[in-house]
């Protein structure tokens, strides 16, 4: 069995991220990885790191605002330095995410905030760290089925993706804020993650997969939404069978380290604990190639890590 090495996880302080961290830290010593926690500096990051240490894990925190690419680059440099004193990097879990209630809101680099945090920040971080992985290694991205609309999503008015050139998707909106526009931006970012996962696998030997934790209403993801929407989401979270961070966190932890999932690659999509075929729209070689090129442009680089 491969020794557990180090797992880097973004967005470790709340909900899915926090429960993933604690599930990894709570493993038996022989199966417990070292942990690199990349998140906004402050008491929440300190608290989850302390909780993980209390469970026996070797933990290092890296303060980082994922809405700033400069911050992400600094975090990657710090991670490379810390890895010289930790076990080999075996997994990166790109968990951090946001759903901006106002698509006019821009990141520090001028990009639409949802696209910047969910997608661009992780493309930067992964590209900067690809050379630091020790085989066998995994990248687990967080996806969402909202990229397409089935019967229930249409009934609930959940916005599906409306794809455009990635440079356009990265541009802040101009219209009045609406839940519809916010939902489309979120679904576009999640479709981008699927395209990126497929293309990234063509540029690296690290196994790339995408995890869908299930619908988790009431989490901090929608913290920018109107108060009435947040209250409704908290009520829906109490319905039996609805996904929760407490249930999905350990499943995501398993995706990162368990031998059961070691074979996954090529952007394999796992919903909760079941590998699932994505819709045809999520496989498009032309869009994937263009996303790779546009991402390099948006990040101000000639390429996004790995092989050309």
Topology diagram in text:
Elements: E1 6-10, H1 15-25, E2 34-39, H2 43-54, E3 59-63, H3 69-82, E4 89-94, H4 113-129, E5 133-142, H5 151-155, H6 166-169, H7 179-201, E6 207-212, H8 227-236, H9 245-257, E7 268-271, E8 274-276, H10 285-299
Parallel strand pairs: 1-2, 1-4, 2-3, 4-5, 5-6, 6-7
Antiparallel strand pairs: 7-8
Please explain how this structure is put together.
- With 308 residues, the protein is an alpha/beta fold.
- Helices cover 40% and strands 15% of the residues.
- The protein has ten helices and eight strands.
- The protein has an eight-stranded mixed beta sheet, sandwiched between helices.
- Strand 1, helix 1 and strand 2 form a beta-alpha-beta unit.
- 49% of the residues are buried.
- The C terminus is likely disordered.
